[in-house]
Amino acid sequence: MKMTEPNDRMTVETALTRDGRFHDNVFIQTFTLVESESDQPRYVEMNVLVDCLDKQNFKMILEERNATQAPTAPPQAGSNLQKEDETNSIQLPMSNTSIETSAAGEPPKKQKHSVTVPDSAETLKILRHQFADFVKQMKKRYNKKKYSGVLSHLRGEFGKSTKGFSEVYTVKKLMELSDSVCMIVVEGVGQGTGFLLFDHYILTNAHLFIKDEIAYVDRNYQILAKVTATFNKENPNGSGVKVIEVKPEIIDFQLTDVKCGRHVDFAVLELQDVDTSTGLLCRSSPDPKTGRVCLIGHPGGGEKQMDFTTIIERERRGEAFRRETGKNDRMDMLINTSIEENREKYDMLMKPDSTEMTYDTCLFHGASGSPVFDESCQVISMHTGGFPYEHEGVKSVIEYAIPLFTILENFLIEMMNRNNVEILTKFTREALTGLHSRDLIYHFIRHLLEEWKPSFSAALTAVWETVKKNENHLKMKKHLRTWIISEKEVLEKIQKAGNEALKEFMSKNDLVKLSQTDDDDVWLSNRRLCCKYIQ
After folding, report:
1. Per the count of CB atoms within 10 A, which of 291, 378, 527, 533 is most buried?
2. pLDDT attached to residue 77
3. How far is CA 310 from the centre of its chain?
4. How far apart (Å, rounded) are the C-alpha atoms in residues 306 and 165?
5. 25-40: per-residue pLDDT in tens?
């Protein structure tokens, strides 16, 4: 027998079945192909693609199938989709058995005990019946006319999803940045993960300080439990671990921000000693809507772990929840119970304007507060929670993270309201060294001017004085001036009685040129532009 004119992606068994020269009884027996012209017998399994066997001669060896083995039936009419073109057809696997070949090329040995899958024929019939509708749905979703186009699209998407973290440089960079990740232990309350944000300040989740609906942080921002940050917990033998105590005064503690209409769950802690790791603020970035991400944390309080996963887009979150159900009644009950217990979170994630990032990760309890990196090793969000349930161990339906920029914006506003000039100065100095975090400072200054109050004077001065020491300050100044002269409300605030401090600040730093001859008492450029600050 000679294998000729192979059809791409066709298996040996399918090719023989379609050949038409073999009686149907042949396929009720176990058969193996042996290369006839080879010195050493080479055996070919039935699931091998024929495109690598072109122009080769084989002998067919038959042996009776055990009575308990399911027969391999030839394709039935209507069991497969019709050809979409001459080079593309859809085939379902037809065989329930496979032939094992040893590495030494010895003939396959008979299986003494064969196991038949219960109701496999009925299952296969159902799958064949559903496959055509499934392909039709895939064509519609990806706007493809042929099944081959769907396959090409899925292969391309899979290639993109696996390529992001396959480069050695990227993995090495993540390993380097993981030095900033630590395990947070709130004694008697909870355990989680955190990471060095800037200077000697740690970012983690606020819910780590809550147990039985009691917050272990009082109104004066005092932590009511001992807190430690453990760095370098990677080696199972415990070597190289560095434990640093956290100061009893918490810098910021926010669970929600009703005014901004955004969900936040974060705490900023101050270390007793300055850690040698580099803060990740300068690597902060807006979160993408799709793509691969990497989480680094301490699930279960164990050694530091990494998990690579893919973002689940907002419009596919409902599908992700449904995919976990329908397996068995008990699991459905556990999943639905978890959703009901976290109904507010579920509703938040399902909103059309939801800003949270969702994905599927194996990092569960203890990983809250883990940084989430994108494919460029930028920190884009902080892992916050999921929908856990117990079934043969702890599992979760879907997990979510809060965008880092949402956290940082809320943090800056809180430091502004509390007039914490020291923190604002340190934050600004570090943020100006990053590509995207620099843009964050620019928009924060705009926020100070748009929402101006006399109490903001110290915060505005502290931030701007720090900006002036940065090499890019002239560029930021240019864009601020362009923006200011295009904003009528800001110009009016400068001239408003009681805002002398703002007027003096603008004049001193040459952000607005004042003129006594101008009717509006403000010099305006002929260019009416509103430019976003570009790094």
Report:
1. 378
2. 41
3. 5
4. 12
5. 666 656 677 776 665 6
Pairwise CA distance, residues 291 & 88, whole Å = 30
Q: Are 338 and 390 in contact (CB under 8 A)?
A: no
C-alpha to C-alpha distance for 157 and 291, rounded to whole angstroms: 10
**pLDDT per residue over 118-139, tens digit each?**
667 778 778 877 888 788 777 7
State yes or no: pLDDT of 75 exceeds 50: no
Query: How much is the CA Rg of the chain, to the nearest whole Å?
Result: 32
Q: How many residues does the chain have?
A: 535
User: Does residue 477 contact residue 463 with C-beta atoms inside 8 Å?
Assistant: no
- Return the closest-CA partner of residue 193 out of 292, 295, 277: 295
Map residue 68 onto helix, strand or coil: coil
Nearest-angstrom CA–CA distance, 256 and 406? 11
What token pair was written down for 232?
Answer: 């370098």
Token pair recorded at residue 426:
């340190």
Q: What is the pLDDT of residues 341-355, one digit of tens each?
A: 888 888 889 888 889
Q: Which of 416, 293, 296, 407 is nearest to 360 (CA)?
A: 293
Distance CA 485, CA 227 (A): 48
Give the integer Cα–Cα distance in Å for 484 and 48.
69
- Amino acid 335 reads I
Residues 6+ apart with CB under 8 A from 204: 184, 192, 193, 194, 195, 266, 267, 269, 368, 369
E strand intervals along 174-256: 181-186, 190-198, 201-204, 210-211, 214-215, 227-231, 242-245, 252-254
User: Closest by alpha carbon to 195, among 301, 311, 298?
Assistant: 298
Task: Specify the pairing of strand 357-359 against strand 371-373.
Answer: unpaired
Average pLDDT of every residue of the chain: 80
Q: How would you classify the pairing of strands 201-204 and 210-211?
A: unpaired
Q: How far is CA 530 from CA 62, 369, 439, 482, 492, in A?
A: 80, 37, 15, 6, 17
The whole-angstrom separation of Cα 293 and Cα 161 is 9
Model-wide pTM > 0.90: no
> Chain-centre distance of CA 94, in angstroms?
37
Tokens matching residue 279: 């803060």
pLDDT, tens digit (0-9, with 9 covering 90-100), for 411-462: 999 999 999 999 999 999 999 999 899 999 999 999 999 999 999 999 999 9
Query: Which among 418, 421, 411 is positioned nearest to 444, based on CA atoms?
Result: 411
- Tens of pLDDT along 361-411? 988 888 999 999 999 999 999 999 988 887 777 778 889 999 999 999 999
The bridge status of strand 357-359 relative to strand 242-245 is unpaired
The Cα 273–Cα 200 span in angstroms is 7
Tracing tokens 């900006």 back to the chain, one arrives at 467
